[in-house]
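Now for today's protein.

===
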Amino acid sequence: MTWVELRRHIPNALTIARFVAIPIFAWLYLEAGDGPAWGAGIFFAAAAFTDQLDGLLARRWHVESSFGKVADPLADRLMIGTAVVLMWATGRIPLLAALVILARDLTLIVGYKALTPSGYELEVTFLGKLATWVLYAALGLVLVTEEGTDWPLVLLWIGIALSVGAGAQYLMRAKRLLRPP
């Protein structure tokens, strides 16, 4: 396989690696116990980094794919969702924060699945990317700080606000695209 052929697969391989990383992250988190979960936090940060890297490489090398357009945001939603459920279940984040994040992500996943047959193309907006970056950062910081540390939770609420705004942006775009002329 030549370098040109190989690099066509690297972005999708990074996305698949994020799917594979989810149960490992969960195990690292649960093994950490009550204190800061540094192993899970570092693993989570690596997942966030690969999220940025796979998109950058796909665009730079002009190897965007239909698979990547669907799998990349799905891998993010599942990694973030897993972290949210685990951190809520262990008392690290409030129930309302978990519910808002999960509801927004479920709405986007179901909405995308419903709209795809109508020709809707998912184009991630800057606000959507920013929301994902802030959520990854906030959740990662909650992972590595002592329980009850407030400032990562403030950042989490900022990420949630951005996430809801991005979700509304996607819904308005879908509504415009589906409205008959």
The first helix runs from residue 3 to 7. DSSP finds seven helices and no strands in the chain.
